[in-house]
Amino acid sequence: MFEILTTDQMYDADRKTIDGGIPGDVLMENAGRTVFEEIIRHWSPRSVSVLCGPGNNGGDGFVIARLLRDEGWSVRLGLLGEIEHLGGDAAFHAKQWDGATERLSPALVVGADLIVDCIFGAGLARDITGDVADLVASVNDSISVVVSVDVPSGVDGNSGCIMGCAIKADLTVTFCRAKPGHYLLPGRQLCGELAIRDIGISDQVVSEIRPTCWRNDPVLWRAGIRWPGLDGHKYHRGHLLAFGGTMMTGATRLVARAARRSGVGLLTIVSDASVLPVYAADAPGTMTASISGLEALLNDCRHNAFVVGPGYGVGDSTRSLVLQLLHLCRSTVLDADALTSFSDDPSTLCFAVQGPTVVTPHEGEFTRLFPDIDGDKLARARAAAKRSGATVLIKGADTVIAAPDGRAAISAVDAPWLATAGSGDVLAGVIAGLMAQGMEMFDAACMGVWLHGRSGTDIGPGLIAEDIPDHLPVILRELWLASRK
Ligand SMILES: NC(=O)C1=CN([C@@H]2O[C@H](COP(=O)(O)OP(=O)(O)OC[C@H]3O[C@@H](n4cnc5c(N)ncnc54)[C@H](OP(=O)(O)O)[C@@H]3O)[C@@H](O)[C@H]2O)[C@@H](O)CC1
Ligand SMILES: Nc1ncnc2c1ncn2[C@@H]1O[C@H](COP(=O)(O)OP(=O)(O)O)[C@@H](O)[C@H]1O
Ligand SMILES: [K+]
Asked: Which residues constitute the domain of residue 279?
Protein backbone atom coordinates (compact mmCIF):
# COMPACT_ATOMS: atom_id res chain seq x y z
CA MET A 1 0.00 0.00 0.00
CA PHE A 2 3.01 2.32 -0.09
CA GLU A 3 2.90 3.00 -3.80
CA ILE A 4 1.70 6.47 -4.77
CA LEU A 5 -0.19 6.67 -8.06
CA THR A 6 -0.75 9.71 -10.24
CA THR A 7 -4.31 10.41 -11.32
CA ASP A 8 -3.51 9.00 -14.78
CA GLN A 9 -2.08 5.84 -13.24
CA MET A 10 -5.23 5.57 -11.14
CA TYR A 11 -7.42 5.86 -14.26
CA ASP A 12 -5.21 3.17 -15.80
CA ALA A 13 -5.73 0.91 -12.78
CA ASP A 14 -9.51 1.46 -13.03
CA ARG A 15 -9.43 0.60 -16.72
CA LYS A 16 -7.32 -2.52 -16.29
CA THR A 17 -9.61 -3.72 -13.50
CA ILE A 18 -12.70 -3.12 -15.62
CA ASP A 19 -11.05 -4.97 -18.53
CA GLY A 20 -10.28 -7.76 -16.07
CA GLY A 21 -13.98 -8.28 -15.44
CA ILE A 22 -15.08 -5.99 -12.62
CA PRO A 23 -17.58 -3.53 -14.14
CA GLY A 24 -17.12 0.20 -13.51
CA ASP A 25 -20.44 0.48 -11.69
CA VAL A 26 -19.28 -2.20 -9.24
CA LEU A 27 -16.02 -0.29 -8.63
CA MET A 28 -18.09 2.82 -7.98
CA GLU A 29 -20.41 0.90 -5.64
CA ASN A 30 -17.32 -0.41 -3.80
CA ALA A 31 -15.84 3.10 -3.63
CA GLY A 32 -19.04 4.57 -2.22
CA ARG A 33 -19.38 1.69 0.24
CA THR A 34 -15.87 2.21 1.66
CA VAL A 35 -16.70 5.86 2.31
CA PHE A 36 -20.02 4.85 3.88
CA GLU A 37 -18.18 2.36 6.12
CA GLU A 38 -15.65 4.97 7.20
CA ILE A 39 -18.47 7.41 7.99
CA ILE A 40 -20.45 4.99 10.15
CA ARG A 41 -17.23 3.88 11.84
CA HIS A 42 -16.40 7.47 12.80
CA TRP A 43 -19.81 9.02 13.53
CA SER A 44 -23.26 8.21 14.88
CA PRO A 45 -26.33 8.97 12.71
CA ARG A 46 -26.75 12.68 12.02
CA SER A 47 -27.99 14.96 9.27
CA VAL A 48 -25.85 14.70 6.16
CA SER A 49 -25.57 16.70 2.96
CA VAL A 50 -23.86 14.98 0.05
CA LEU A 51 -22.43 17.47 -2.47
CA CYS A 52 -22.09 15.85 -5.89
CA GLY A 53 -20.18 17.12 -8.92
CA PRO A 54 -20.80 16.31 -12.58
CA GLY A 55 -18.32 13.42 -12.89
CA ASN A 56 -17.61 10.07 -11.27
CA ASN A 57 -16.67 11.70 -7.97
CA GLY A 58 -20.30 12.82 -7.91
CA GLY A 59 -21.30 9.25 -8.85
CA ASP A 60 -19.62 8.03 -5.66
CA GLY A 61 -21.78 10.56 -3.81
CA PHE A 62 -25.02 8.97 -5.06
CA VAL A 63 -23.86 5.59 -3.69
CA ILE A 64 -22.92 7.10 -0.32
CA ALA A 65 -26.23 8.96 -0.06
CA ARG A 66 -28.21 5.78 -0.76
CA LEU A 67 -26.27 3.62 1.71
CA LEU A 68 -26.52 6.21 4.48
CA ARG A 69 -30.23 6.63 3.92
CA ASP A 70 -30.77 2.85 3.91
CA GLU A 71 -29.02 2.91 7.28
CA GLY A 72 -31.60 5.38 8.57
CA TRP A 73 -29.59 8.60 8.35
CA SER A 74 -31.22 11.85 7.27
CA VAL A 75 -29.66 12.65 3.88
CA ARG A 76 -29.90 15.57 1.45
CA LEU A 77 -28.13 15.45 -1.90
CA GLY A 78 -27.15 18.33 -4.16
CA LEU A 79 -25.89 18.00 -7.74
CA LEU A 80 -23.83 20.40 -9.83
CA GLY A 81 -25.45 20.45 -13.27
CA GLU A 82 -28.29 18.41 -14.68
CA ILE A 83 -28.89 14.80 -13.76
CA GLU A 84 -29.43 13.98 -17.48
CA HIS A 85 -25.88 15.11 -18.19
CA LEU A 86 -24.33 12.51 -15.91
CA GLY A 87 -22.56 9.79 -17.81
CA GLY A 88 -21.75 6.09 -17.44
CA ASP A 89 -21.41 4.77 -13.92
CA ALA A 90 -22.46 8.05 -12.30
CA ALA A 91 -25.72 8.03 -14.31
CA PHE A 92 -26.30 4.41 -13.29
CA HIS A 93 -25.92 5.17 -9.60
CA ALA A 94 -27.94 8.39 -9.81
CA LYS A 95 -30.85 6.21 -10.94
CA GLN A 96 -30.47 4.04 -7.83
CA TRP A 97 -30.98 7.13 -5.65
CA ASP A 98 -34.69 7.64 -5.08
CA GLY A 99 -34.42 10.66 -2.79
CA ALA A 100 -34.65 14.28 -3.90
CA THR A 101 -31.84 15.74 -5.96
CA GLU A 102 -31.38 19.44 -5.14
CA ARG A 103 -29.39 22.05 -6.97
CA LEU A 104 -25.88 22.33 -5.53
CA SER A 105 -25.86 25.48 -3.39
CA PRO A 106 -24.76 26.81 0.03
CA ALA A 107 -28.31 26.05 1.28
CA LEU A 108 -27.19 22.42 1.60
CA VAL A 109 -24.62 23.41 4.18
CA VAL A 110 -27.17 24.95 6.51
CA GLY A 111 -28.18 22.47 9.21
CA ALA A 112 -25.89 19.69 7.99
CA ASP A 113 -23.87 18.06 10.77
CA LEU A 114 -21.82 16.19 8.24
CA ILE A 115 -20.95 17.15 4.68
CA VAL A 116 -19.75 14.62 2.14
CA ASP A 117 -17.66 16.33 -0.50
CA CYS A 118 -17.97 14.57 -3.86
CA ILE A 119 -17.70 17.68 -6.03
CA PHE A 120 -14.43 16.97 -7.83
CA GLY A 121 -11.90 14.18 -7.58
CA ALA A 122 -9.27 13.07 -10.04
CA GLY A 123 -10.98 14.92 -12.89
CA LEU A 124 -10.49 18.44 -11.57
CA ALA A 125 -9.31 20.14 -14.73
CA ARG A 126 -9.19 23.86 -13.96
CA ASP A 127 -9.55 26.34 -11.11
CA ILE A 128 -12.77 26.30 -9.12
CA THR A 129 -14.55 29.65 -9.56
CA GLY A 130 -17.97 31.28 -9.28
CA ASP A 131 -20.85 29.55 -7.48
CA VAL A 132 -18.81 26.44 -6.70
CA ALA A 133 -16.12 28.61 -5.10
CA ASP A 134 -18.83 30.24 -2.96
CA LEU A 135 -20.04 26.81 -1.94
CA VAL A 136 -16.50 25.74 -0.98
CA ALA A 137 -16.21 28.87 1.18
CA SER A 138 -19.54 28.07 2.90
CA VAL A 139 -18.40 24.54 3.65
CA ASN A 140 -15.11 25.76 5.07
CA ASP A 141 -16.86 28.42 7.15
CA SER A 142 -19.37 25.94 8.56
CA ILE A 143 -18.98 23.98 11.77
CA SER A 144 -19.95 20.74 10.02
CA VAL A 145 -17.68 17.74 9.90
CA VAL A 146 -16.43 17.26 6.32
CA VAL A 147 -15.59 13.98 4.60
CA SER A 148 -13.95 14.28 1.19
CA VAL A 149 -14.15 11.53 -1.36
CA ASP A 150 -10.91 10.69 -3.14
CA VAL A 151 -9.39 14.18 -2.62
CA PRO A 152 -10.73 17.36 -1.02
CA SER A 153 -12.39 19.11 -3.96
CA GLY A 154 -10.04 21.75 -5.30
CA VAL A 155 -6.86 19.85 -4.42
CA ASP A 156 -4.92 18.66 -7.43
CA GLY A 157 -4.28 14.96 -6.85
CA ASN A 158 -0.92 15.03 -8.60
CA SER A 159 0.64 18.07 -6.97
CA GLY A 160 -1.28 18.83 -3.78
CA CYS A 161 -1.78 22.36 -5.13
CA ILE A 162 -5.02 24.27 -4.62
CA MET A 163 -6.87 24.97 -7.85
CA GLY A 164 -8.55 28.29 -7.05
CA CYS A 165 -9.94 27.18 -3.69
CA ALA A 166 -10.36 23.87 -1.88
CA ILE A 167 -12.42 22.06 0.71
CA LYS A 168 -10.80 21.55 4.10
CA ALA A 169 -11.73 18.02 5.15
CA ASP A 170 -11.65 16.23 8.48
CA LEU A 171 -11.40 12.85 6.77
CA THR A 172 -10.49 11.95 3.20
CA VAL A 173 -11.22 8.49 1.87
CA THR A 174 -9.29 7.53 -1.23
CA PHE A 175 -9.27 4.34 -3.20
CA CYS A 176 -6.64 1.69 -3.90
CA ARG A 177 -3.54 3.85 -3.34
CA ALA A 178 -2.76 7.43 -2.32
CA LYS A 179 -1.89 10.12 -4.85
CA PRO A 180 1.00 12.59 -4.48
CA GLY A 181 -1.44 15.36 -3.56
CA HIS A 182 -2.44 13.47 -0.41
CA TYR A 183 1.08 13.87 0.95
CA LEU A 184 2.44 17.03 -0.65
CA LEU A 185 1.56 20.37 0.94
CA PRO A 186 -0.83 22.08 0.99
CA GLY A 187 -2.96 19.07 -0.05
CA ARG A 188 -1.90 17.00 2.94
CA GLN A 189 -3.15 19.60 5.38
CA LEU A 190 -6.52 19.80 3.65
CA CYS A 191 -7.10 16.02 3.72
CA GLY A 192 -7.39 15.72 7.50
CA GLU A 193 -7.15 12.03 8.37
CA LEU A 194 -6.42 9.94 5.28
CA ALA A 195 -8.02 6.52 4.78
CA ILE A 196 -6.83 4.45 1.80
CA ARG A 197 -9.41 1.77 1.05
CA ASP A 198 -9.47 -1.21 -1.27
CA ILE A 199 -12.22 -1.20 -3.90
CA GLY A 200 -11.25 -4.37 -5.77
CA ILE A 201 -8.22 -3.18 -7.77
CA SER A 202 -5.65 -5.94 -7.31
CA ASP A 203 -2.01 -5.57 -6.27
CA GLN A 204 -1.19 -7.27 -9.57
CA VAL A 205 -2.85 -4.42 -11.50
CA VAL A 206 -0.97 -1.86 -9.41
CA SER A 207 2.36 -3.54 -10.08
CA GLU A 208 1.62 -3.70 -13.83
CA ILE A 209 1.39 0.09 -13.77
CA ARG A 210 4.98 0.15 -12.49
CA PRO A 211 4.72 2.87 -9.85
CA THR A 212 7.85 4.96 -9.37
CA CYS A 213 6.78 6.89 -6.30
CA TRP A 214 6.22 5.67 -2.77
CA ARG A 215 5.39 6.92 0.67
CA ASN A 216 8.68 6.75 2.55
CA ASP A 217 8.50 3.61 4.66
CA PRO A 218 11.02 0.95 5.77
CA VAL A 219 9.41 -1.45 3.27
CA LEU A 220 11.24 0.49 0.57
CA TRP A 221 14.77 0.26 1.92
CA ARG A 222 15.06 -2.12 4.85
CA ALA A 223 16.58 -4.85 2.67
CA GLY A 224 19.36 -2.40 1.79
CA ILE A 225 20.46 -1.70 5.37
CA ARG A 226 24.04 -2.84 5.98
CA TRP A 227 23.91 -4.36 9.43
CA PRO A 228 27.39 -5.24 10.73
CA GLY A 229 28.47 -8.85 10.34
CA LEU A 230 29.38 -10.88 13.40
CA ASP A 231 32.97 -11.06 12.16
CA GLY A 232 33.10 -7.45 10.94
CA HIS A 233 35.55 -4.78 11.99
CA LYS A 234 35.25 -1.03 12.00
CA TYR A 235 36.64 -0.54 8.50
CA HIS A 236 33.83 -2.73 7.20
CA ARG A 237 31.48 -0.02 8.44
CA GLY A 238 33.10 2.80 6.50
CA HIS A 239 35.27 5.80 7.30
CA LEU A 240 33.49 9.08 6.78
CA LEU A 241 35.28 12.40 6.40
CA ALA A 242 33.15 15.31 7.63
CA PHE A 243 34.49 18.70 6.59
CA GLY A 244 34.23 21.27 9.36
CA GLY A 245 34.23 25.06 9.05
CA THR A 246 36.03 27.56 11.20
CA MET A 247 33.09 29.60 12.50
CA MET A 248 29.98 27.44 12.78
CA THR A 249 31.66 24.44 14.35
CA GLY A 250 28.41 23.21 15.90
CA ALA A 251 27.05 22.20 12.52
CA THR A 252 29.77 19.65 11.78
CA ARG A 253 29.74 18.43 15.35
CA LEU A 254 26.05 17.59 14.83
CA VAL A 255 26.87 15.95 11.50
CA ALA A 256 29.56 13.87 13.17
CA ARG A 257 27.44 12.71 16.09
CA ALA A 258 24.55 11.80 13.80
CA ALA A 259 26.80 9.89 11.40
CA ARG A 260 28.41 7.97 14.24
CA ARG A 261 25.01 7.09 15.72
CA SER A 262 23.91 5.83 12.31
CA GLY A 263 26.59 3.18 12.64
CA VAL A 264 29.59 4.41 10.66
CA GLY A 265 32.83 2.64 11.65
CA LEU A 266 35.12 5.67 11.83
CA LEU A 267 34.56 9.36 11.53
CA THR A 268 37.13 12.07 11.03
CA ILE A 269 36.39 15.77 11.09
CA VAL A 270 38.71 17.52 8.65
CA SER A 271 39.21 21.22 9.30
CA ASP A 272 41.61 24.10 9.44
CA ALA A 273 44.23 23.41 12.10
CA SER A 274 43.17 26.51 14.02
CA VAL A 275 39.83 24.95 15.03
CA LEU A 276 40.87 21.33 15.40
CA PRO A 277 40.96 21.63 19.21
CA VAL A 278 37.29 22.61 19.19
CA TYR A 279 36.40 19.50 17.23
CA ALA A 280 38.81 17.29 19.18
CA ALA A 281 37.28 18.37 22.48
CA ASP A 282 33.75 17.57 21.35
CA ALA A 283 33.55 13.79 21.56
CA PRO A 284 36.30 11.32 22.36
CA GLY A 285 35.25 8.89 19.62
CA THR A 286 35.47 11.50 16.87
CA MET A 287 38.84 11.82 15.16
CA THR A 288 40.22 15.00 13.67
CA ALA A 289 42.65 15.83 10.88
CA SER A 290 44.00 19.04 9.43
CA ILE A 291 42.88 20.06 5.96
CA SER A 292 46.53 20.74 5.18
CA GLY A 293 46.90 16.96 4.84
CA LEU A 294 43.97 16.64 2.46
CA GLU A 295 45.89 14.99 -0.38
CA ALA A 296 47.04 12.16 1.83
CA LEU A 297 43.57 11.75 3.34
CA LEU A 298 42.01 11.47 -0.08
CA ASN A 299 44.67 9.08 -1.34
CA ASP A 300 43.58 6.66 1.38
CA CYS A 301 40.71 4.76 -0.24
CA ARG A 302 39.44 3.63 3.14
CA HIS A 303 38.04 7.16 3.47
CA ASN A 304 35.07 6.03 1.44
CA ALA A 305 32.53 8.79 2.07
CA PHE A 306 32.39 12.55 2.49
CA VAL A 307 29.96 15.06 3.87
CA VAL A 308 30.45 18.75 3.35
CA GLY A 309 28.36 21.87 3.66
CA PRO A 310 26.92 22.41 7.14
CA GLY A 311 28.71 25.39 8.66
CA TYR A 312 31.47 25.18 6.07
CA GLY A 313 31.18 28.68 4.58
CA VAL A 314 30.21 29.83 1.10
CA GLY A 315 32.92 30.61 -1.42
CA ASP A 316 35.61 29.54 -3.85
CA SER A 317 37.47 27.26 -1.47
CA THR A 318 34.26 25.35 -0.73
CA ARG A 319 33.63 25.02 -4.46
CA SER A 320 37.13 23.66 -5.08
CA LEU A 321 36.84 21.20 -2.24
CA VAL A 322 33.47 19.92 -3.48
CA LEU A 323 34.78 19.48 -7.03
CA GLN A 324 37.86 17.69 -5.74
CA LEU A 325 35.69 15.32 -3.68
CA LEU A 326 33.20 14.65 -6.46
CA HIS A 327 36.05 13.80 -8.84
CA LEU A 328 36.81 10.77 -6.63
CA CYS A 329 33.34 9.27 -7.21
CA ARG A 330 33.02 8.13 -3.62
CA SER A 331 29.79 8.46 -1.61
CA THR A 332 29.21 12.15 -1.00
CA VAL A 333 26.56 14.19 0.76
CA LEU A 334 26.37 17.89 -0.11
CA ASP A 335 24.28 20.21 2.02
CA ALA A 336 23.93 23.89 2.86
CA ASP A 337 27.07 25.93 1.99
CA ALA A 338 28.38 23.23 -0.34
CA LEU A 339 25.28 23.84 -2.47
CA THR A 340 25.01 27.60 -2.06
CA SER A 341 28.64 27.94 -3.20
CA PHE A 342 27.43 26.89 -6.67
CA SER A 343 24.55 29.38 -6.92
CA ASP A 344 26.33 31.32 -9.66
CA ASP A 345 27.27 28.27 -11.64
CA PRO A 346 25.07 25.26 -10.86
CA SER A 347 25.93 23.50 -14.10
CA THR A 348 29.51 23.00 -12.90
CA LEU A 349 28.17 21.17 -9.88
CA CYS A 350 25.81 19.04 -11.97
CA PHE A 351 28.59 18.22 -14.41
CA ALA A 352 30.92 17.16 -11.60
CA VAL A 353 28.51 14.64 -10.06
CA GLN A 354 29.53 11.17 -11.18
CA GLY A 355 29.58 8.90 -8.15
CA PRO A 356 26.89 8.27 -5.54
CA THR A 357 25.90 11.75 -4.43
CA VAL A 358 23.02 13.01 -2.32
CA VAL A 359 22.20 16.71 -2.18
CA THR A 360 19.94 17.89 0.62
CA PRO A 361 18.71 21.44 -0.09
CA HIS A 362 15.91 23.17 1.71
CA GLU A 363 13.58 25.16 -0.56
CA GLY A 364 15.83 28.25 -0.52
CA GLU A 365 18.96 26.31 -1.42
CA PHE A 366 17.06 24.42 -4.11
CA THR A 367 15.88 27.61 -5.78
CA ARG A 368 19.41 29.02 -5.76
CA LEU A 369 20.73 25.89 -7.48
CA PHE A 370 17.88 25.20 -9.88
CA PRO A 371 16.18 28.57 -10.46
CA ASP A 372 14.67 27.46 -13.76
CA ILE A 373 13.03 24.29 -12.43
CA ASP A 374 9.45 24.90 -11.37
CA GLY A 375 6.36 22.85 -10.65
CA ASP A 376 5.36 20.92 -7.57
CA LYS A 377 7.94 19.60 -5.14
CA LEU A 378 7.89 16.06 -6.54
CA ALA A 379 8.32 17.24 -10.12
CA ARG A 380 11.10 19.64 -9.12
CA ALA A 381 13.05 17.03 -7.17
CA ARG A 382 12.76 14.60 -10.07
CA ALA A 383 13.87 17.17 -12.64
CA ALA A 384 16.85 18.20 -10.52
CA ALA A 385 17.86 14.56 -9.94
CA LYS A 386 17.68 13.84 -13.64
CA ARG A 387 19.71 16.92 -14.49
CA SER A 388 22.39 16.47 -11.84
CA GLY A 389 22.70 12.69 -11.57
CA ALA A 390 22.49 13.09 -7.80
CA THR A 391 19.77 11.92 -5.48
CA VAL A 392 17.94 15.13 -4.66
CA LEU A 393 16.22 15.55 -1.32
CA ILE A 394 14.14 18.69 -0.90
CA LYS A 395 13.58 19.21 2.81
CA GLY A 396 10.49 20.47 4.61
CA ALA A 397 7.33 19.08 6.17
CA ASP A 398 6.73 17.11 2.95
CA THR A 399 10.31 16.09 2.20
CA VAL A 400 10.70 14.57 -1.25
CA ILE A 401 13.57 12.30 -2.25
CA ALA A 402 14.19 11.66 -5.95
CA ALA A 403 16.77 9.44 -7.63
CA PRO A 404 18.16 10.17 -11.10
CA ASP A 405 16.50 6.99 -12.41
CA GLY A 406 13.03 8.42 -11.66
CA ARG A 407 12.28 6.72 -8.33
CA ALA A 408 10.86 9.06 -5.72
CA ALA A 409 9.57 8.94 -2.17
CA ILE A 410 7.54 11.40 -0.15
CA SER A 411 7.78 11.66 3.62
CA ALA A 412 4.36 11.87 5.23
CA VAL A 413 5.40 12.26 8.84
CA ASP A 414 3.91 15.04 10.94
CA ALA A 415 6.93 16.22 12.90
CA PRO A 416 7.04 20.03 12.96
CA TRP A 417 9.38 19.75 15.95
CA LEU A 418 12.14 19.11 13.42
CA ALA A 419 11.94 22.74 12.28
CA THR A 420 14.83 23.83 14.49
CA ALA A 421 18.36 24.96 13.76
CA GLY A 422 20.79 22.13 13.23
CA SER A 423 18.21 19.50 12.44
CA GLY A 424 19.19 19.52 8.75
CA ASP A 425 22.84 19.04 9.73
CA VAL A 426 21.82 15.92 11.62
CA LEU A 427 19.97 14.64 8.56
CA ALA A 428 23.04 15.15 6.35
CA GLY A 429 25.15 13.28 8.89
CA VAL A 430 22.79 10.32 9.12
CA ILE A 431 22.60 9.93 5.34
CA ALA A 432 26.38 10.21 4.95
CA GLY A 433 26.88 7.67 7.73
CA LEU A 434 24.53 5.20 6.03
CA MET A 435 26.25 5.69 2.67
CA ALA A 436 29.66 5.19 4.26
CA GLN A 437 28.37 1.82 5.47
CA GLY A 438 27.64 0.89 1.86
CA MET A 439 23.97 1.69 1.54
CA GLU A 440 22.76 2.70 -1.92
CA MET A 441 22.26 6.48 -2.16
CA PHE A 442 18.48 6.61 -2.67
CA ASP A 443 17.91 4.03 0.07
CA ALA A 444 20.25 5.91 2.41
CA ALA A 445 18.49 9.20 1.75
CA CYS A 446 15.06 7.64 2.35
CA MET A 447 16.20 5.85 5.49
CA GLY A 448 17.86 9.02 6.80
CA VAL A 449 14.64 10.99 6.30
CA TRP A 450 12.61 8.26 7.97
CA LEU A 451 14.92 8.02 11.01
CA HIS A 452 14.87 11.81 11.26
CA GLY A 453 11.08 11.93 11.04
CA ARG A 454 10.61 9.15 13.59
CA SER A 455 12.96 10.98 15.96
CA GLY A 456 10.82 14.07 15.46
CA THR A 457 7.58 12.30 16.37
CA ASP A 458 9.14 10.27 19.20
CA ILE A 459 10.84 13.23 20.89
CA GLY A 460 8.15 15.78 20.06
CA PRO A 461 7.81 19.17 21.78
CA GLY A 462 11.05 20.48 23.19
CA LEU A 463 13.17 18.71 20.57
CA ILE A 464 16.56 20.24 19.86
CA ALA A 465 18.86 19.02 17.13
CA GLU A 466 21.26 17.51 19.67
CA ASP A 467 18.52 15.09 20.81
CA ILE A 468 18.13 13.42 17.44
CA PRO A 469 21.45 11.53 17.15
CA ASP A 470 21.12 10.11 20.64
CA HIS A 471 17.63 8.85 19.91
CA LEU A 472 18.75 6.90 16.84
CA PRO A 473 19.80 3.72 18.74
CA VAL A 474 16.21 3.23 19.94
CA ILE A 475 14.82 3.32 16.40
CA LEU A 476 17.71 1.39 14.87
CA ARG A 477 17.19 -1.36 17.43
CA GLU A 478 13.55 -1.68 16.31
CA LEU A 479 14.62 -1.99 12.68
CA TRP A 480 17.34 -4.46 13.60
CA LEU A 481 15.02 -6.67 15.65
CA ALA A 482 12.47 -6.59 12.82
CA SER A 483 15.19 -7.65 10.36
CA ARG A 484 15.92 -10.79 12.41
CA LYS A 485 12.31 -12.05 12.41
N1 LIG B 1 -14.25 3.45 -12.45
C2 LIG B 1 -13.77 4.62 -12.06
O3 LIG B 1 -13.24 5.35 -12.88
C4 LIG B 1 -13.88 5.01 -10.66
C5 LIG B 1 -13.78 6.37 -10.32
N6 LIG B 1 -14.03 6.78 -9.10
C7 LIG B 1 -14.26 8.18 -8.80
O8 LIG B 1 -14.22 8.91 -9.98
C9 LIG B 1 -13.50 10.12 -9.80
C10 LIG B 1 -12.95 10.63 -11.08
O11 LIG B 1 -14.07 10.88 -11.87
P12 LIG B 1 -14.00 11.84 -13.13
O13 LIG B 1 -12.90 11.45 -14.02
O14 LIG B 1 -15.34 11.83 -13.72
O15 LIG B 1 -13.65 13.23 -12.49
P16 LIG B 1 -14.40 14.20 -11.43
O17 LIG B 1 -13.37 14.63 -10.46
O18 LIG B 1 -15.62 13.58 -10.91
O19 LIG B 1 -14.77 15.52 -12.26
C20 LIG B 1 -14.93 15.55 -13.64
C21 LIG B 1 -16.02 16.55 -14.02
O22 LIG B 1 -15.79 17.79 -13.41
C23 LIG B 1 -15.73 18.85 -14.38
N24 LIG B 1 -14.76 19.81 -13.92
C25 LIG B 1 -13.44 19.63 -13.70
N26 LIG B 1 -12.88 20.70 -13.14
C27 LIG B 1 -13.89 21.62 -13.00
C28 LIG B 1 -13.94 22.93 -12.46
N29 LIG B 1 -12.86 23.53 -11.95
N30 LIG B 1 -15.12 23.58 -12.45
C31 LIG B 1 -16.23 22.97 -12.94
N32 LIG B 1 -16.23 21.72 -13.47
C33 LIG B 1 -15.07 21.05 -13.49
C34 LIG B 1 -15.38 18.15 -15.65
O35 LIG B 1 -15.88 18.92 -16.67
P36 LIG B 1 -15.06 19.20 -18.02
O37 LIG B 1 -13.64 19.53 -17.66
O38 LIG B 1 -15.14 17.90 -18.77
O39 LIG B 1 -15.78 20.30 -18.62
C40 LIG B 1 -16.10 16.81 -15.48
O41 LIG B 1 -17.46 16.96 -15.82
C42 LIG B 1 -12.45 9.74 -8.80
O43 LIG B 1 -11.95 10.89 -8.14
C44 LIG B 1 -13.24 8.81 -7.89
O45 LIG B 1 -13.93 9.57 -6.91
C46 LIG B 1 -14.48 5.81 -8.11
O47 LIG B 1 -15.86 5.72 -8.29
C48 LIG B 1 -13.84 4.48 -8.31
C49 LIG B 1 -14.14 3.95 -9.67
N1 LIG C 1 7.28 21.60 9.50
C2 LIG C 1 8.20 20.62 9.42
N3 LIG C 1 7.84 19.34 9.61
C4 LIG C 1 8.76 18.35 9.54
N5 LIG C 1 10.08 18.56 9.30
C6 LIG C 1 10.48 19.80 9.10
C7 LIG C 1 9.58 20.90 9.14
N8 LIG C 1 10.30 22.03 8.88
C9 LIG C 1 11.58 21.65 8.71
N10 LIG C 1 11.70 20.31 8.83
C11 LIG C 1 12.93 19.52 8.72
O12 LIG C 1 13.94 20.09 9.54
C13 LIG C 1 15.19 20.07 8.88
C14 LIG C 1 15.70 21.50 8.77
O15 LIG C 1 16.84 21.52 7.98
P16 LIG C 1 17.55 22.88 7.54
O17 LIG C 1 16.54 23.79 6.94
O18 LIG C 1 18.71 22.49 6.71
O19 LIG C 1 18.01 23.51 8.91
P20 LIG C 1 19.47 23.61 9.55
O21 LIG C 1 20.38 24.08 8.48
O22 LIG C 1 19.30 24.62 10.66
O23 LIG C 1 19.84 22.28 10.07
C24 LIG C 1 14.96 19.39 7.55
O25 LIG C 1 15.24 18.01 7.62
C26 LIG C 1 13.47 19.59 7.31
O27 LIG C 1 12.90 18.59 6.49
K1 LIG D 1 -13.90 15.28 -3.59
From this structure: 218-483
